[in-house]
Design goal:
Length: 98
């Protein structure tokens, strides 16, 4: 993947080629709509791997927190929402950004 991002119009005009590159050659493409709106086109396989790694990281964080509690290193905490729990564990909320 290059650091240069394609503009949205160029990406749209070449979408078939970009999808083929992502799916078959595992080439990611950065796409920019504006300075603040950017995305990356990757293969579904790579996307699934990213999700798997995120889940593993979340499980490791929760496991470490439970182990610390069991060792008496932390107190039990109550949370008003799942988002508060994830924030306390320094993890992205489900559906949020990592």
């Amino acid at each position: 993947m290059t650091n240069d991002a394609l503009g949205i119009v160029e990406a749209r005009n070449n979408l078939g080629v970009l999808v083929a590159r992502a799916a078959h050659r595992h080439e990611a493409t950065r796409i920019r709509r504006s300075a603040g709106e950017r995305a990356v086109l990757i293969s579904e396989e790579e996307y699934e791997e990213l999700l798997r790694l995120r889940r593993e990281r979340e499980i490791a964080g929760v496991t470490a927190a439970i182990a610390a509690h069991d060792r008496g290193e932390t107190d039990m905490a109550a949370y008003d929402s799942a988002a508060d729990l994830y924030a306390d564990l320094d993890l992205p909320a489900p559906g949020g950004r990592s």
